[in-house]
Predict the 3D structure of the following.
Amino acid sequence: MGTLIGRDFIETRDFSVAEIDELLAAATELKADFHSGKATLRLPNQTIFLIFFDKSTRTRNAFEAGITQLGGHAHFLEPASLQISHGETARDTGIILGQMGHGIAIRHDLIPGMGNSYMRQVAEHSPVPVINMQCDIDHPTQTLADIMTIREHFGQNVRGKKIAVTWGFAPSYAKPLSVPQGLISLMPRMGLDVVLAHPPGYDLMPDVVAQAKESAKEAGVKFEVTDSMDAAFEGADIVYPKSWGVCDLMTKKCDAADQKEIDAIEKECLAMNAKHKDWICDARRMKLAAKDAVYMHCLPADRGCEVTDEVIDGPQSIVFQEAENRLHTAKAIMASMMRERPF
Ligand code: CP
């Protein structure tokens, strides 16, 4: 332990498999301590700044509760109430918050091309670790909890297990691409075979898919892409169907002149989604998967659209275990990286 102190946590691909294993071991230990009531005051009096450009239930509360349980404190910050909304730069924000605390965590996920680059700029200038709470490219604190949950269920050695990462219909909003992208990036490196399924037009970022293919090749596992949800489910050990928006349309939000234009793009994304209402995880599709397959979702799920209540509340669903593991992995990341000020 201790090799990660001072590092930023922006994408899982920035970390070796051995380092990911180190984080997972820390999360497992922290989970056992949490359940046995043992105090884990590893970051006494430390402060983490949480900047949310988007809404959150799990991530915000995993980090807020997590830092409290580690003996520190979080500041919940929204750009609308910060000088960020008056144009203060990522560089200045990184320098200033970094001088006042021990870690900075950022969620900036809705516009392709923006979030990852913003947090990497903050990290370049911050003297303390920067943690990605979801960007346009990756959601690494989610996928760390996902692999922890998969190992808890199937055992430490998951080589040869197949995960189906598939699109699902959602009418609520154009969801970021970062969860499926994070999954296809990390899971091959952890030894899982991956099949990615989506309707035509819902391609993930080409660089991310190319890297995932390369990682699968290096790890000696399978990586396939299909436009059939049924084909993806065939024989899968883990099914992870969730919605995401059309990348090209979402990118247009970057250049939108005003809120009216952003709203029009969002409407167009939802109209596209509505053409694929049959992309739902239901009992019929679960029967296509392996007999002991599990259903996962980062949540929130659009019930009745991405998934039926029967599946998400059924015996194959491990979504609440998965959600709880957000707490333990968030604590592992903070405890491993923030333990000392580097100056
Ligand atoms: N899965 C996830 O990131 O949930 P929140 O959006 O509620 O943080």
Observations:
- The radius of gyration is 19 Å.
- Residues 25 and 332 are 8 Å apart (CA to CA).
- The chain has two domains: 12-139+326-337, 142-323.
